[in-house]
Amino acid sequence: MTREIFGLLEGYMLSQTDDAAHDREHIYRVLYNALDIANCEGGADLDVLIAACLLHDVGRREQFADPAVCHARVGAEKAHRFLLENGFSEDFAARVRDAVRTHRFRANDPPVSAEAKILFDADKLDAAGTMGIARTLNYKGQVGDALYVLGPDGLPSDGAGDGVNTFFNEYNIKLRKLYDRFYTKRGRELAEARRASAQAFYEALLSECRRPYLAGRGLLEAALRETVKKAED
After folding, report:
1. Do residues 194 and 126 lie in contact, with contact meaning Cβ atoms separated by under 8 Å?
2. What is the 3-state secondary structure (H, E, C) of 16-33?
3. Is CATH 2.40.240.20 the right assignment for the domain spanning 1-126?
4. For 156-170, what is each residue's pLDDT tens digit?
5. Are 104 and 34 in contact (CB under 8 A)?
6. Where do the H-state alpha helices sit in 86-184?
7. What is the mean pLDDT of the segment spanning 136-157?
8. DSSP code of residue 150
């Protein structure tokens, strides 16, 4: 890939990027991770891979405006159209489109090609470890989701099975499960090195969220009783 072509793709990516959790630096990290994986795994067309990495989140704007939209599917069609309009072959554009379309964790559309599997792993790697937690907290803040909700016991829920779009719920339905979903050996190795830090952060944050409720509710009740007692005296 020439610098001129890279610049063309990069320019389009930058024009479509305005989500702080999926910003240009996320794109570059995914690209760098992908090149690392490809270097170890082999078998990938680097031109297709680089283009797919740069364009994999160009549908984020549409999903941010309407959460019912799948950014991977919208982005795949946008990438395909952009490439054709700029003189790339149908074969190249289709291979990039397929990689972009299948990079999403939740979609029931698994990657098939070497480039698609590497993109999937590189993108999921940026959702692993404490980096993934930081980006999730960033995104949750943007869309106005809470850190947690209270469970039946009146304590902050750990997010497992409560079905509410909180950080703790996102950790349980996605971040915790990432590590068994990598397609490449190198991707699994890089992700596994991050697992412990993410688990430790989650457990520490949950503990810190619950501690004030455990101590503070009793203190509040005692203070309110004291106020009533003084008023009666």
Report:
1. no
2. CCCCHHHCHHHHHHHHHH
3. no
4. 999 998 889 999 999
5. no
6. 90-101, 114-125, 129-143, 167-173
7. 92
8. B
Q: How many CB atoms lie within 10 A of CB 63?
A: 20
Residues 167-182 as b/e (b if ≥16 CB within 10 A, e otherwise) read bbbbbbbbbbebbeeb
Asked if the domains at 1-126 and 127-233 fall in one CATH topology, the answer is no
End-to-end CA distance of the chain: 84
Q: Cα Rg for the chain, rounded, in angstroms? A: 22
**Do 95 and 48 contact (CB within 8 A), yes or no?**
yes
Q: For the chain, what are the domain ranges? A: 1-126, 127-233
Three-state SS sequence of 62-113 = HHHHCCCCCHHHHHHHHHHHHHHHCCCCHHHHHHHHHHHHCCCCCCCCCCCC
pLDDT in tens, 197-210: 999 999 999 999 99
The whole-angstrom separation of Cα 183 and Cα 121 is 7
Nearest Cα to Cα of residue 38 among 179, 187, 182: 187
So what CATH class is 127-233? mainly alpha
Q: Which of 17-21, 48-52, 191-195 has the lowest mean pLDDT?
A: 17-21
Q: How far is CA 102 from CA 21, 71, 89, in A?
A: 20, 11, 20
